[in-house]
Amino acid sequence: MTEIFFLLCAFLCRFVTILFSYFNSDIFNNKPEVNVFYFPHVSSNVMGLVVEYFYSQSVQVTESTVQSLLETAELFKIKSIAQACCDFLQQKLSINNCISILTLAGHYVYADLWKKASLFILRHFQDVADFCPEFYTLPEQQLESFIENNELNVREERVVFEAVLRWINHAPEERRRLFPALMSKVRLQQILDKYLVETVCPENMKRRNAHFVAMVTTTMRVLRNSNLVRPLPGPRQPAEVLLAFGGSNINLLANVVQLYNVRSNCWRVVCDKSICLPEFSKCVYTDGFIYCIGGLVGYTCLSSVIKFSFASQIWEEAGSMHEVRAQPTAVALNGFVYALGGWIEGQTLNSAERFEPSTNQWKFISPMEHRRADAGATTLNGKVYVFGGFILDEAQSSAECYNPETNQWTLIPHMEVARGAMGAIAYKDQIFVMGGYSNGMCLSNVDVYDPALMAWRTAAHMKSCCCSFGVALLEDQLYVVGGFNSDEIHLSAVWRYDVENTTWNVVGDLAVPHGAISCCVVERIPYGAAFHL
């Protein structure tokens, strides 16, 4: 028994020894091998954002971190962070950063961001060429693709010529050889002879640029014989187009939408539907839709509203107003549509209501201080301004301003001339009130209201008296479109006012004479594309 005991004790000792040696082996005593990775180009701040993203599935992108965060997302192949950075950059596109964003998008092959940056540069080419320092870093192929693109938005072709000349002169020794290839993409035939003769040729003769002088003289020769020798390149496409709609043409209610291309200086009908809009209705544009508000069918005043979708080119019903209104005044502001005043059964209204497209509903707002129908109205700095109008047949001179934040109307100084059926439009913190109808005749007066000074001044009169026309602001110039004269004849004339030079000029006539018309300016892409330009 004693022997067995000792054998058992020996066995246990041996077992304990084995266990002790096992637990003291490398498996338990030595630390596992650790691989350390260094990312010297990733800051601790950005790495912190990445780590936080894995916990929260969201990332905060700022102007100071977007580029390094994008580079880190590419390094670690985190597509969702890269997409967040691209979305941020699209929203922040500006004159100063568009070329750096284009370069970044090209480097990492972000097709959508690259297209957005390219389109931004095409639309703002003159400002980019004038004010973006990185313009001079554009590679030759990229600059060439821009200047040959039909989407390049410039009012005059000499802007393209001067930009190319500055780009070459930035590094003349390296870039002089590129001159002929780049200038072949400039539409020199669109540049005035006088500019070529008096500016281009003398400038380059001084520089002894024989290649360019030869190109200019050849171009001038082509200009003299172009109609028989070869077709001239067409004008470039504008970034925005002017649309005219609503009202009536000749003796029929209007069922057409007309479009004006400022580059070709011509109008054409782009939408001709069987539907006719109600008489004495008012049209207003916002966010891809034209809203036709109220009006009269037969002897019945309407509270109904129909809207035209640019995407589908279909008219459909929208939410009806609470009040029936003929000849209301309408404006759009911050995505809302406002209907002001109007008349019903011989009674002029001062009520007002606002439409919210997202809910398809109208809500009353505070009534105006004065009753008025067929008044002029516009928006400026987040407020609605309304001028004149009629109480029955009597023109009014009163004016007032609505603040959506306080839901209050405030009277402002009266106009010097009582009128209704006029045009009103804001430009550079001032409001231009033009033409209209008063005491049995059309007017040509133009008055300008300055809200900061709460004062009126006069401006150059329109070239002809008219009322019930459309007004629009396109490329920093004011347009007066169609309307009626004192004999109630539909007009096709279109006038353009240059505010800086205080001059009126006639532009291309409407395709169809049009009275009681509404106008809006829309981006040619995407909205103009709906009309198959």
Task: Summarize the helices and strands and which ones pair or pack.
Elements: H1 2-23, H2 26-29, H3 44-56, H4 66-76, H5 79-91, H6 98-108, H7 111-123, H8 125-131, H9 140-147, H10 158-170, H11 172-175, H12 179-183, H13 193-206, H14 210-229, E1 240-245, E2 248-249, E3 252-253, E4 256-261, E5 266-272, E6 282-286, E7 289-293, E8 296-297, E9 300-301, E10 305-309, E11 315-318, E12 329-333, E13 336-340, E14 343-344, E15 347-348, E16 352-356, E17 361-365, E18 376-380, E19 383-387, E20 390-391, E21 394-395, E22 399-403, E23 408-412, E24 423-427, E25 430-434, E26 437-438, E27 441-442, E28 446-450, E29 455-459, E30 470-474, E31 477-481, E32 494-498, E33 503-507, E34 518-523
Antiparallel strand pairs: 1-4, 1-34, 2-3, 4-5, 6-7, 7-10, 8-9, 10-11, 12-13, 13-16, 14-15, 16-17, 18-19, 19-22, 20-21, 22-23, 24-25, 25-28, 26-27, 28-29, 30-31, 31-32, 32-33
Helix pairs in contact: 3-4, 4-5, 6-7, 13-14
Brief synopsis:
With 533 residues, the chain is α+β, with helices and mostly antiparallel strands. Among the domains are: 165-236, no CATH class; 240-531, Neuraminidase (6 Propeller), CATH 2.120.10. A hairpin with a 2-residue loop joins strand 26 and strand 27.
Structure description:
- Residues 14-93 form the BTB domain.
- Residues 98-201 form the BACK domain.
- Keywords: Kelch repeat, Repeat.
- It contains 14 helices and 34 strands.
- Strand 14 and strand 15 form a beta hairpin.
- It is α+β, with helices and mostly antiparallel strands and 533 residues long.
- Among the domains are: 165-236, no CATH class; 240-531, Neuraminidase (6 Propeller), CATH 2.120.10.80.
- 30% of the residues lie in helices and 27% in strands.
- The model is unreliable at 2-20 (pLDDT under 50).
